[in-house]
Structures
1.
Amino acid sequence: MRVFLIGFMASGKSSAGKRLANKIGLPFVDLDDYIEEKYNTTIRLLIYDKGMDRFREIEKECLETLINEHEDILISTGGGTPCYFDNIKLMNKSGITIYLEVDIPTLVERLMYAKKDRPLIWGKSREDLAVYAKELLERRQVDYNQAKYKVNGKNLKIDSLVDLINMKA
């Protein structure tokens, strides 16, 4: 079984993904970490060196590779992964997609104190970040809403995700 966690940056895809994969016995891959390891660089430098368009192509190629190489896997995608090419359709065709939906104030709070480098929000104040996150989330919502399942990611309970997956598997 393949499971894809999608959602906005800081929605909890990576942290929930690790715990969920452990509970359901699937190998876990964070797509951004996979790309960084494969290209021996950071996402920030990859975008800087290759540009955003090429980064999105690399992201798609890596997603396809993981799908083709693994029948059983839990993949935490990047926030923009479902929104480019036909990635959301590919993920829906290949497995279970779960959208971790989180409100803007919670996302902004998490992003302000996140340890992970997030190229799309470099140098933004809290106010600028709130406006940017709202606008970007509105644009991405049409893709996120194509996920097979939507769950509230604010106070996510891993056991509820386990139950959801077990019901659908």
2.
Amino acid sequence: MSIQVGQAAPAFTLYDTDKNKVSLADLKGKNVVVLFFPLAFTGVCTTELCNVRDNIAVYNNTNATVLGVSVDSLFTLGKFKAEQNLNFPLLSDFNKDAAKAFGVLYETFPAFEMQGVSKRAAFVIDAEGVVRYAEVCPTPGDLPDFAAIQQTLSTLA
């Protein structure tokens, strides 16, 4: 079962595409949007993350840090980030620890029977580390409800 609204967000420390460790605990005092996405370079994931890129001011204006999280390697994510000109960190959950902690890991991904791929999911975590919005998309082809994410952020700003 995935993390629910009102619960404390699970702690995680993951590498970003610049090979730096990023810990959720280090972002305490800021709102954080954690976007789990299945795989870099796929159509829906590209659409999702480019939507965030194109609307980054909305997130910045609500004191929010956006983190994209995938089970891809940090090298794959680095190439993806560069090709799409993404303006927020992508974190490698290669060992699947964060996806497991948030309860968003597929046993078997619907496409190609891959195991260990994260579900598409969005979490808004407030400055105190409490989950204020939680959405696990029903299928990998669905996008998160960006309006609901932004509405939640507006109540926290």
3.
Amino acid sequence: MPYEWHDQIDSDGLPVRRLILWRYRSLTPAGFAWAIGGAATALVLPLLAVVGSAVLWGLLPFAAGAVWALWYAMQYAWRRGGTVEQLTLRPDLLHVTRRDPGRAPRDWQGNPYWVRLALRDQPVEAYLTLTDGGGREIELGAFLTPDERRQLRADLQDALAAVRDPRAG
């Protein structure tokens, strides 16, 4: 699942649950290492034919530059490519921050007692929203698949129930 929970205790001694959601990325850190290693190997193999000659020293900077350019481009795409949502759940506050590349962070907050989750099939399948007592509504996990949003709703519903009634957990 492209989300994970972190349990902490804040400076006031209150329990805090943080939910981090991120856009799915097909290239994992291990895949990144394999891609760089494969590119370096593919560029070094032809250079073995010129080991011991001055030609090697002429070609080596270009091969190293190509590997560096690939590494830089993949790191740049990794940093810029991700929408991240962070939900902080405390007994007295539910706070959501959404960070999109190239935009200022957007924040929403409400009292967990009054926050309601809704999962409906309009405008998209398994459209997950949070609504506070005042009628304000935000979408959560827009970049997740419908099945992931259903699972997220179940997890978040359990977390909200535990915050509303600590004796139940």
4.
Amino acid sequence: MKYFVTVAGREHVVLVDGDRVTLDGQPVEATAAPVAGTPVRQVLVDGASWMLTTEAVGRGRWELGWRGDRWEVEVVDERTRHIRTLTGPGQARTGGGLLRAPMPGLVVRVLVEPGQQVEAGQGVVVLEAMKMENELKAVGPGVVRAIRAEVGRPVEKGEVLVELGS
């Protein structure tokens, strides 16, 4: 599995294949094991051992602590990164717009109603693709003008699911 790990604004590519790990193209020996009942993980990388505190602070985001220092880390798999390229950077916009399916899938839930005010980042539709549920969010504030998504109906990539207006 390929991951993109951002630490202190610098992105690293991590490939995990069974017990083999590659960091930025270089093979490393790495393991991480939780310390039962604590937010601590024992991490071993190329023979060096660290005890790190780990705290989830959002989807794919972690805060790591070591010897009094703290870092915010984002871990994104290849699939999520690809979806982000299809849906854009998520910058706040105004005036609504069209929420389109970023991939083929099945509509599992519609989280809004016509006339409802939504904020940037608010969940609008849940789409199942490849046996995973993906909550699609409004990219900017707006009012739900029309809902084209129907629960239980398959959709194609690019299909309009919800229309938002200002």
